[in-house]
């Protein structure tokens, strides 16, 4: 336990999260010891029960439970059936114009999407400028659950003018890349996009669709995209599990 409580491993928080006065909560000390156990078990390894951990570290089950809650929120653990197992590394999604499909494939995972709904509605005034529509014009709303190796990891809502993709409900395969469809079937390429990233809690409906507890932190990305000619094209609202995703980007000096 010494390396977790007093040392500093590369990539870990400074002083491993210990306050300057050196006193740490009991649950945090247990969390550090369980983290070492996870390294020993390896990805997919089954964690001992709360009772066994409480006896091993000579603490209450509530102390163990609090440590496990944090490890679950951080994505170090995941529920599997009636047990808890060591989770694999988080998916790294680039902040770029590459699609979700391309980003997941680059990491050797199998991307997928599950259709929730595809419907038309009249464009409200607040949405119109972002997708280049007139208020009241027909707009598509495409909603899909994001999958990685059949694991539900996010929820994606896409808004685009019906005039830009008039046969979306006929020609598009819902489990495929929307960007690939625009490029290959309609000759529309993406030129640039504005994105905003924030942390949120999922609504009860979103948590049910993604299969997570409502208290799990989510990463929310709002994207407004423009085509190769600079015309507004789509608005996308993407909700990603905070315990399964991290985002990367490369910065350059102007």
Summarize this, please?
Residues 24-89 form the HTH gntR-type domain. The protein has nine helices and ten strands. It is of the alpha+beta class.
Let me know the average pLDDT.
83
Largest sheet: 6 strands, antiparallel
Range of strand content:
25-35%
The count of domains is 2
- Helical residues, percent: 25-40%
State the separation between the terminal residues, measured CA to CA.
45 Å
Q: What's the β-strand tally? A: 10
Shape: elongated
State the CATH architecture of the largest domain: 3-Layer(aba) Sandwich
According to CATH, the homologous superfamily of the largest domain is Chorismate lyase-like
Order of helices and strands: HHHHEEEHEHEEHHEHEEE
What name does the CATH topology of the largest domain carry?
Chorismate lyase
What's the alpha carbon Rg, rounded to whole Å?
22 Å
Q: Please list the strands of the largest sheet in the order they lie side by side.
A: 4-5-6-9-8-7
The CATH class of the largest domain is identified as Alpha Beta
Region (Disordered): 1-21
Pfam families: GntR, UTRA
InterPro entries: Bact_HTH_transcr_reg, Chorismate_lyase_/UTRA_dom_sf, Tscrpt_reg_HTH_GntR, UTRA, WH-like_DNA-bd_sf, WH_DNA-bd_sf
Domain HTH gntR-type: 24-89
């Amino acid at each position: 336990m010494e390396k977790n409580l007093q040392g500093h491993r590369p990539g870990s928080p400074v002083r491993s999260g210990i306050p300057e006065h050196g006193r740490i909560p009991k649950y945090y000390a247990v969390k550090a010891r369980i983290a070492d156990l996870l390294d020993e078990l390896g990805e997919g390894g089954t964690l001992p029960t709360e009772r066994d951990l409480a006896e091993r570290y000579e603490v209450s089950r509530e102390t163990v439970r609090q440590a496990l809650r944090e490890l679950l929120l951080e994505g170090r653990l995941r529920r599997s059936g009636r047990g808890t197992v060591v989770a694999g590394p988080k998916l790294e999604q680039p902040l770029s114009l590459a699609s979700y499909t391309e980003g997941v494939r680059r990491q050797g995972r199998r991307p997928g999407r599950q259709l929730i709904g595809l419907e038309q509605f009249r464009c409200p005034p607040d949405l119109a400028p972002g997708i280049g529509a007139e208020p009241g014009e027909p707009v598509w709303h495409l909603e899909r659950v994001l999958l990685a190796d059949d694991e539900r990891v996010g929820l994606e809502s896409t808004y685009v003018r019906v005039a830009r993709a008039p046969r979306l409900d006929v020609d598009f395969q819902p489990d495929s890349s929307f960007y690939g469809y625009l490029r290959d079937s309609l000759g529309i390429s993406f030129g640039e996009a504005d994105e905003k990233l924030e942390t949120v809690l999922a609504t009860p409906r979103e948590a049910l669709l993604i299969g997570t507890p409502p208290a799990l932190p989510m990463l929310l990305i709002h994207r407004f995209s423009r085509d190769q000619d600079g015309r507004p094209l789509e608005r996308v609202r993407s909700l990603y599990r905070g315990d399964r995703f991290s985002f990367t980007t490369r910065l350059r000096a102007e």
